[in-house]
Recover the amino acids of this structure.
């Protein structure tokens, strides 16, 4: 980390940031001359900071606040180290951090620590998850009373329709995407293919697979910050909120994962198109936990506007081969790359909690040698299938009462997330749809 700063003497300030339950970056700004102490000793802030609501407010009656004197945790740098923040005008470095207790124990309310705990359970079995993600987002002109697609910097025109896989739509914002790829390179985020999607001004960028689930979650978290910040530099907004436009498809965050053994073999592959028994066990675990973990995949009021039939967002608990109407899809292709695509989550999720829920559920299936129902064929929206919760309130209740979630998440994280969402549910009820959109557009 010291070498990075020596190579970048132009950096004047440091941001240290940890991820809270809503996926927000919480931290501090520090002059660069104090960075060496920061890198070696870390910093402190209250445990309660990782458990704020979407407005950044304390959770009322939280045991982390007055009951314990709002005690501090210790925040130490993650393996990521320093990286540039290309969306800011002044040369600035970001240092991702995560939270521990005074005695060195991981803080169980930290989303990154939750994912680390699940990854360690895989390691104990000699297994390693391999993860890739596809992130959808909208470019939006939010300067007026009505949201609309930004004017193209090249033509000055606004496209009034969605353009699926349109090269023209990508080229209309070529300057933005060129800067975005340059910034991904600078931050070591593996941004791969970009495509235009079904929504108005909607795009998707794939992040390449990683044999480190923590790094994959880091990539997604950092990528969301980067896209939103860089868009503002270009004069418009970028949003990962689940459903900014009622009449268009929403933003998803699809996760592809496989599992390798100590020799590097994909345990989901049996050399054929159907995949191995281990693949079926993992699918069964994902289906088993999907209903109860809906709050993780759809964490906000707006999330449930995306999860409706015929909107390219699966709400039925089922799996299939090469079928995008199912929640769990097994893509075709080389048997050596056999994997699961988990399609339920919206773009508004916390990537760490999402991956914890997915990989934790798959592990339950693997350890229990669970068997899934038969794969579906055809349109899942037209079938009588079990569904995930249809409302935010139901998802909160189900998550809190679940007997499955404590097998994946700590009791403290479950409590903190439920308290957070109940507070948000209460105050969101007082707001108009327009006011809710204003909150979610830039935050999630």
């Amino acid at each position: 980390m010291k070498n990075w700063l020596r190579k970048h003497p132009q950096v004047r300030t440091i941001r240290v940031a940890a991820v809270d339950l809503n996926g927000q970056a919480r931290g501090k700004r520090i002059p660069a001359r104090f960075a060496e102490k920061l890198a070696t000793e870390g910093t402190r802030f209250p445990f309660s900071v990782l458990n704020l609501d979407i407005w950044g407010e304390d959770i009322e009656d939280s045991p982390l606040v007055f009951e314990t004197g709002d005690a501090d945790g210790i925040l130490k740098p993650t393996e990521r180290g320093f990286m540039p923040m290309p969306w800011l005008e002044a040369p600035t470095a970001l240092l991702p951090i995560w939270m521990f207790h005074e005695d060195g124990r991981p803080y169980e309310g930290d989303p990154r620590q939750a994912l680390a705990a699940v990854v360690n359970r895989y390691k104990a079995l000699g297994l390693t998850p391999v993860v890739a993600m596809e992130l959808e987002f909208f470019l939006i002109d939010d300067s007026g009373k009505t949201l609309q697609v930004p004017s193209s910097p090249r033509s000055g025109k606004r496209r009034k329709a969605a353009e699926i896989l349109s090269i023209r739509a990508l080229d209309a914002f070529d300057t933005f995407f060129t800067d975005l790829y340059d910034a991904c390179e600078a931050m070591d985020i593996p941004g791969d293919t970009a495509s235009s999607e079904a929504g108005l001004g909607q795009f998707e960028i794939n992040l390449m697979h990683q044999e480190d689930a923590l790094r994959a979650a880091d990539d997604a978290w950092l990528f969301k910050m980067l896209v939103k910040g860089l868009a503002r530099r270009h004069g418009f907004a970028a949003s990962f909120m689940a459903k900014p436009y009622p009449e268009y498809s929403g933003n998803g965050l699809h996760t592809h994962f496989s599992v390798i053994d100590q020799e590097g073999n994909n345990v989901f592959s049996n050399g054929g198109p159907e995949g191995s028994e281990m693949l079926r066990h993992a699918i069964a675990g994902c289906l088993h936990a999907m209903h109860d973990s809906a709050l993780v995949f759809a964490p906000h009021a707006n999330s449930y506007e995306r999860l409706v039939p015929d909107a390219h967002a699966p709400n039925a608990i089922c799996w299939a081969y090469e079928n995008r109407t199912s929640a769990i899809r097994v893509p075709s292709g080389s048997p050596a790359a056999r994997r699961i695509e988990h399609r339920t989550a919206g773009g508004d999720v916390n990537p760490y909690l999402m991956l914890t829920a997915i990989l934790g559920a798959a592990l339950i299936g693997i350890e229990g040698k669970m068997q899934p129902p038969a794969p579906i064929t055809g349109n899942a929206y037209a079938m009588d299938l079990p569904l995930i919760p249809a409302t935010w309130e139901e998802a909160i209740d189900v998550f809190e009462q679940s007997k499955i979630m404590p097998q994946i998440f700590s009791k403290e994280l479950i409590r903190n997330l439920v308290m957070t969402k109940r507070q948000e549910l209460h105050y969101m009820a007082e707001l108009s749809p327009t006011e809710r959109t204003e909150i979610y557009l830039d935050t999630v």
Summary: The chain has a mean pLDDT of 95. The CA atoms of residues 406 and 414 lie 8 Å apart. The longest helix spans residues 213-233.
